Amino acid sequence: MSYSATSQVTVTCHADAMQVLSKPQLFSNQVSQHISVPNGMDDEQHQTYRQLIEPFFSTTAIAQFQPACVALVERQVTALIDHADGMTIDFITAFARPFALDIQWLFMGWPDDYKPLIQAWLQAQQQAQRRQDKSAMVMLAAEFEQHIATLAKLAQQQSQPTVMRQLTELRIHGRALSLAELTSLIRNWTVGELATITASVGIITGYLAQHPQLQQQLRNNDLPLRESIDEILRIHAPLPSNRRRTRCPVQLAQQELPSGTPITLVWPEIQRDAAVFPQPLTFNPQQNAAHNLLYGAGVHVCPGKPLAQLELETFTRILLEQVSCLELAGQPTWSNYPATGFSSLPLRLSA
């Protein structure tokens, strides 16, 4: 743990991270002046809103979504092979980014003709974040809210019970969610997940391209797929960080922290802490699974974990089934913090 002159605490130790994650009475998720449903909520408020969204990720809900997820992945992997069989491609541009968008679009049940507007918004948002252009980000936040308002109206006119329509029908304390609440919830689901799914798909594929023996073990079902994916994403974390704030004076790593101290959990370093993972860069899912914090821990553990697991497992399984040769075709480029994953990943694949 480091403690800067500006009273910012950076957590890089697994034990410290577990203390932060397991003691919500000491470490608050309310770290922004803007509403964040339910990520940036504490205590009963968090529980109330989280209970609203958990049914969307239930065993039944995920089973219902699975056939559509499988069909989409099969179409997109087949199209990738048809387009790039034996060729060198940038996998991030050619597959990872469009796949992350399409799978989230499918899950939400949004109309396809609205996709270009959201794509343009995402590009503008990413550019504003890179520039740290706060005025642009404020304008883009308002624009996103208007997009959600339009998509909510469209969903209410649909006869199909899409996820978007079900979200507009949610009730809390006897009332419908406000537009601000609905926008915050959907922004956490979609915008946040787009980055992590893009990063995860790229990281998994890049790792497999560099480890042909692991590819074959997974094809032969010699290793459990889910645990293998989780271990790859422990070695190369798809999420850069999370934030917390102390709710009262606390002691963390023998350091006394006053109430209100901002804390940043740095996942790439936490997930490679040699005190917990003796060989942090070595693939060893059986040894490391119990301490893997890929989806967090405690009351704020990622509610969308079952959906992410379905998407990543389906993608990896179908990729390995349809591709016999997957290899690097150049030097990958890693994204700069606070982004994570590959910014480019040159690959060559063959059916």
TrEMBL record:
InterPro entries: Cyt_P450, Cyt_P450_B, Cyt_P450_sf
GO molecular function, one term: oxidoreductase activity, acting on paired donors, with incorporation or reduction of molecular oxygen
PANTHER family documented for this protein: P450, PUTATIVE (EUROFUNG)-RELATED
Pfam families per UniProt: p450 (PF00067)
Protein name, entry field: Cytochrome P450
Species of the source: Pseudidiomarina maritima
Family: Belongs to the cytochrome P450 family.
